[in-house]
């Protein structure tokens, strides 16, 4: 592979300013150009993008600036031989820190007080509403970059952590690792279930009514993965009928979440607009991944994070 141009697709603006990404990618010995949907590509191109486009299949290499690549047609990349890399590995602080925010809000009732602040309302929560994270159990579903970061922070907060991953391999700061077929058992004792897995055929609809029924009635679901990992109607019903105590959702079934969606007004839900990974250094983190892979290409090595 011989890269003669880095083409930065305008869709990167969904995560960071286009000009910041272009600037961060300069200085690696390859010309960098911002491109739109009218651009065409050839086998000298590396495309850096948030979203997929059919035209990218004419390039040598496409780098997706997200960890999740569920929107990309992996089979088409394999058929054309265009390399596809993702951005797993850079979200080990951002997303876990957001998750800690969700946990703390629920335990210390901060989301409730923020709502009341708008009305100058001094009402205090009932005596038995607040609790401490220390001593509570968390189940982390997916123990990759994000799941490990969540587990580390939960452990530091004095929580007991169990996890789920395909391999079942042990993970640091995780007392017990289950495999996906044991998901029911993994979530049963958890006060928090945190979804940190990719959206795949196996995880699509994984959190359904039956699984929510297995969860404690005082438990909270946190979804920083992808919306469809959770069955929408099942979650809404579970929140309405008290099957679980609440949910924090950064990833949604439709994005933006429609203005009329019931979750916006749900007292026991925290909704964020897919920003768990946002940081003012996102362009630098992506540039570091691209730079590493340019160096690997020069050395004739395989690409880091290659998914097709
Ligand atoms: P990684 O690839 O590092 O980790 C994925 C983990 O999920 C692995 O531990 C893997 O298991 C596990 N996994 C895969 N399939 C299953 C399954 N069926 N059941 C349980 N666990 C499973 O990815 P990241 O941690 O970087 O990112 C994870 C996902 O989070 C992304 O795919 C993306 O969808 C989402 N994401 C969301 C962001 C946001 O802004 N909200 C930001 C970044 C990512 P094993 O270890 O055995 O392979
Ligand atoms: C944008 C991150 C991912 O998969 O969904 C996230 O990486 C988007 C900052």
UniProtKB/TrEMBL annotation:
* Single GO MF annotation: oxidoreductase activity, acting on the CH-OH group of donors, NAD or NADP as acceptor
Q: Which UniProt keywords apply?
A: NAD, Oxidoreductase
Q: Read off the CDD domains from this record.
A: 2-Hacid_dh_1 (cd05300)
D-isomer specific 2-hydroxyacid dehydrogenase catalytic domain location: 62-307
Return the Gene3D superfamilies for the record: NAD(P)-binding Rossmann-like Domain
Whether Ribosomal protein counts among this entry's keywords is: no
The segment(s) forming the D-isomer specific 2-hydroxyacid dehydrogenase NAD-binding domain are 101-276
NCBIfam families to which the protein is assigned, alphabetical: Dhydh_Halo
Family, per the entry? Belongs to the D-isomer specific 2-hydroxyacid dehydrogenase family.
Protein name in UniProt:
Phosphoglycerate dehydrogenase
